[in-house]
Amino acid sequence: FKDGSQKDLLNFSGTIPVKYGNSYNIPIQLWILDSHPFAPPICFLKPTVNMGISVGKHVDAHGRIYLPYLQNWSHPKSTVIGLIKEMIAKFEEELPLYSLSSSDAARRSELLSYIAKITEGETDMKSKSKTGGGKNEGCFNKITVVGAGDLGIACVLAIAAKGTADKVVLLDLSEGAAKGGTMDLEIFALPNVEISKDFSASADSKVVVLTVNNLGNAQTYLDVIQSNVDLFRGIIPAISHHSQNAVLLVASHPVEVMTYVSWKLSAFPKTRVIGVGANLDTERFQYIMTNLLKAQVLAKDAWIIGEQGEDKVPSWTRCNSVANQTEAMADCNSREKVANRAMEVLKGRGQRSWSVGLSVADLTDSILKDKRKVHSVSTLAKGCCNINSEVFLSLPCILGTNGVIEMVKLEEDPLVQEKLQSSAGSIHDLQQQLKL
């Protein structure tokens, strides 16, 4: 894979019979991932040297095959046999290969060699941009937002307003034609914003923002989360397949659990899977301290960490530089009073779609511009504060192009550590009940 990781995959190579006037045997290869049957196969045409690829809505220039069946893959109803049946039907509508002349075949052999190098990740972005010539082929700041609900649309608008991304793709996974806010986005046609139902539209995104939430017919809180997990099982493998070097930014609820699920399903490094966590609360917390409580010196070192919601906790990254124990105690008491007052003000601030959208835009800006700014985001907390389980909690992290660069060390506070360990325990217990 492009991120340097390796896996043993099951490969099917052969031909499928396609009638297009005459009957043709179309050579294909299917790569079955280790997450099968929950993830769809990776499908390619495998043309011989005397065949050319007809680029169309189901096939790209590299021979990668895209089908509705793959996009809507869902275990147990989706099967390899069902996939092949749809492949035959779609190729009978639009034949994916054509016959080359002998001179063309020689050039084709060279092209196949070049494509093989691209597939293996051996060519760099500069060579791609030279051969492609278009902006989409080279270094391109592209963000995909998955989910066209209120939060998804709010994220698109906020990211577009920020102006950091060259292109924003809104991936609408809802059934039927565009409606509601998505229809309005199409009507008023924002520049550099594309709306699609096709996972391939997300290809080569630098950041993928996940906003989808599926309540379904859930009766309990666990059912709600499991419903979201089931939804993510059909989304994350497809997204990570099309954008293997992306940073996944999770805004779906509950953010700590869904970030963990995204990490497990994508097999991405932990640094490239983060949740929005307490970024919004921290920005508000620091603003309240600076502008309402006039505690600017304290605000720059203040963070909201832990679990999003009622169990969030204020913490500090400032080193204690006071001269003696008495001054240290006074400093601590003063800081605690200010933090308590700020937390009371913070309680009255809900997290509306547009406010979370602004927070998401802030995070994507730091990632795309490699700002190395500190944000409180959901990250793998194992090893921090004596937490031994694989759970995601909000902690101050330096963000850059590849996601989390470094976790910022917090002041040691037994009460804070106790609260973080309690949150980690409850989240881990919940995760153990989920079916991934």
Automatic annotation (TrEMBL):
<dbReference type="Pfam" id="PF02866">
    <property type="entry name" value="Ldh_1_C"/>
</dbReference>
<dbReference type="Pfam" id="PF00056">
    <property type="entry name" value="Ldh_1_N"/>
</dbReference>
<feature type="domain" description="UEV">
    <location>
        <begin position="1"/>
        <end position="101"/>
    </location>
</feature>
<dbReference type="GO" id="GO:0006089">
    <property type="term" value="P:lactate metabolic process"/>
</dbReference>
<dbReference type="Pfam" id="PF05743">
    <property type="entry name" value="UEV"/>
</dbReference>
<dbReference type="InterPro" id="IPR036291">
    <property type="entry name" value="NAD(P)-bd_dom_sf"/>
</dbReference>
<dbReference type="InterPro" id="IPR001557">
    <property type="entry name" value="L-lactate/malate_DH"/>
</dbReference>
<comment type="function">
    <text>Interconverts simultaneously and stereospecifically pyruvate and lactate with concomitant interconversion of NADH and NAD(+).</text>
</comment>
<dbReference type="InterPro" id="IPR008883">
    <property type="entry name" value="UEV_N"/>
</dbReference>
<dbReference type="InterPro" id="IPR001236">
    <property type="entry name" value="Lactate/malate_DH_N"/>
</dbReference>
<protein>
    <submittedName>
        <fullName>UEVLD enzyme</fullName>
    </submittedName>
</protein>
<dbReference type="InterPro" id="IPR022383">
    <property type="entry name" value="Lactate/malate_DH_C"/>
</dbReference>
<dbReference type="InterPro" id="IPR015955">
    <property type="entry name" value="Lactate_DH/Glyco_Ohase_4_C"/>
</dbReference>
<dbReference type="GO" id="GO:0015031">
    <property type="term" value="P:protein transport"/>
</dbReference>
<dbReference type="GO" id="GO:0004459">
    <property type="term" value="F:L-lactate dehydrogenase (NAD+) activity"/>
</dbReference>
<dbReference type="InterPro" id="IPR016135">
    <property type="entry name" value="UBQ-conjugating_enzyme/RWD"/>
</dbReference>
